Amino acid sequence: MSHHYITTHGDQGESVFSTKVPTEHYAHDIPGGKLEIIYSAHTFPPNLSTELDIDQYAHDRTHGLPAENPICPVDGTATAIVSMPPNAVSLMHRTMTLDVAIVIEGVIELHLEGGESRTLHAGDSITQRGTMHMWKNVTPDDGWARMAGFATPIAQPFEVAGKRLETEWRM
């Protein structure tokens, strides 16, 4: 089992490991896999003079992110691991976030609404700019696929081809 640690500062200002958050991994079910929040902050940049960001992250880790944006806090940032079981397929979706994802295990197809797709292998990355997309685990021999993702909310609503884009999930 792997672990996750957060650093902070002790009473004398020295660097220490936080004891506020369990180091064991905890993942939430999402369409097509599991989402494990590695870190979240509800402000960006976060204030590191206190540990309010760690307290909020501990809450997010056990209860999930707010319903208005389950991928990333509206005014903050999030880092997560997405694990997809063999042959899993996500819903076609758009989130109001700028995402950077890095495949760390397996092979994943990324399908876009316009019909294009790319196959990503371990070490490949993608910057997702609020576009409609779907993930499909195509790892050989019924293997799992994992991605590390870094999400930042899109600061303002935006329009493309005269249409205002919003978070969207399609069956």
From TrEMBL:
Report the InterPro entries cross-referenced here: Cupin_2, OryJ/VirC-like, RmlC-like_jellyroll, RmlC_Cupin_sf
Question: Any idea where the Cupin type-2 domain is?
Answer: 81-140
Segments passing through the bilayer: none
One short Pfam family name for this protein? Cupin_2
- Domain of life, per lineage: Eukaryota
Q: Which PANTHER family match?
A: CUPIN TYPE-2 DOMAIN-CONTAINING PROTEIN (PTHR36156:SF2), SLR2101 PROTEIN (PTHR36156)
What this protein is called in its record is Cupin type-2 domain-containing protein
Which lineage ranks, top first, belong to the organism behind this chain? Eukaryota, Fungi, Dikarya, Ascomycota, Pezizomycotina
